[in-house]
Amino acid sequence: MNSLLLLIVVLAVSISVSGVDIKYTPYGDEDFTDVLEAEADKHHIWQIPQFDGSFKSMTEQEAKELTLLSEIPKRIKNMVSHFRNKRRKIRFFLYTQKNVVNWQEIDMDRPETLHRSFFNSSHVTRIYTHGWLNGVHVIQSQEMIDSHLMNGRKEDYNIIIVDWSLWSMTYNYYLAHLRTRKVGLKIANFIDWLHSESGLDFETTHVIGYSMGGHVAGITGKLVTKGRINTIIGLDPAMPLFWLKNPENRIADTDAEYVETIQTNGGMEGFQFPLGQATFYPNGGSRQPGCKNDFFGACAHARSVTLFAEAVAKGKDNSFDSLKCEDWQEMKDRKCSEDAQGVKIGDPGNFGRAKGVYFLNTEGEAPYGIGKF
Ligand SMILES: *[C@@H]1O[C@H](CO)[C@@H](O)[C@H](O)[C@H]1NC(C)=O
Averaged over 360-365, what is the pLDDT? Predict the structure, then answer.
């Protein structure tokens, strides 16, 4: 189901262009979307994934002629409407050692939901956001929860899973990408509110996002007002429509005290060039072992979450050791040789330590959980 969903995600990248909704009316008075629309409009070019894994540039008109929209099977449409949250708002679900299975919803409009919850500001808070065509009921949310709370070490965290399916569940990738700004703003408001309401400590606050959610996490970091987020982690931040030269609209290395990215499908669904203060490239960062027939890179893309979860679950053992590279080119050429001295993906200890480009070889790492390699 997961790989099916991911395949659809990539398919929908190409499909979405036939349903381009340039005349989209922003919600409320947030006008960021206008700026982004103008930016996208200037380029007038769509990157359409091809079966051989490359991207083809097309004009909007050419892309529209593909008219793939009619080919979306009905069951996929049903699935999307099933996952879309009906509450008309972005929702936040808390998991801790005291409730690893049953979430507690935290609602800013009802502060008692926070005060009665197991949220504890003395623990590290990790907020996870999904991406396009995703909601909370996906394997990646479970990987986040399990790896932190069910690894056997009983360390406590406030794990908060964000649900912005209200806005992500559209085939129109273009539209969803325009919405990242206001989702980031909502999460930023939520973090500021947690700080005022219950003493959330910015120094122990991490925001983690997968795919398009990686950019949401970065934007969140740009928009908080009551402090500076300690750590932002982008799990294979999505590439289509997020321009390297436009760091305002994507995850950037200045969005938090420490920004880490784990890039597993560079040049396809994810970015190729390093985006974080520290950037990890598992297995070279474009294709992943065990991902067979990965035409669209869906498997390699999702591997960023599985590897992160795996590293978190394993904690401080000797697995996931990385090599430090001089730069991206050296990583590409597989010339990295310097031992990174225990720096590993997702480790809270990376703060103040990890910097630059890292290569790691994950062949032979046994997966702990759901995402069987
Ligand atoms: C919050 O966590 C700290 C450290 O684990 C613990 O000492 C304290 O009792 C917790 N507070 C509540 C209200 O559970």
Answer: 78
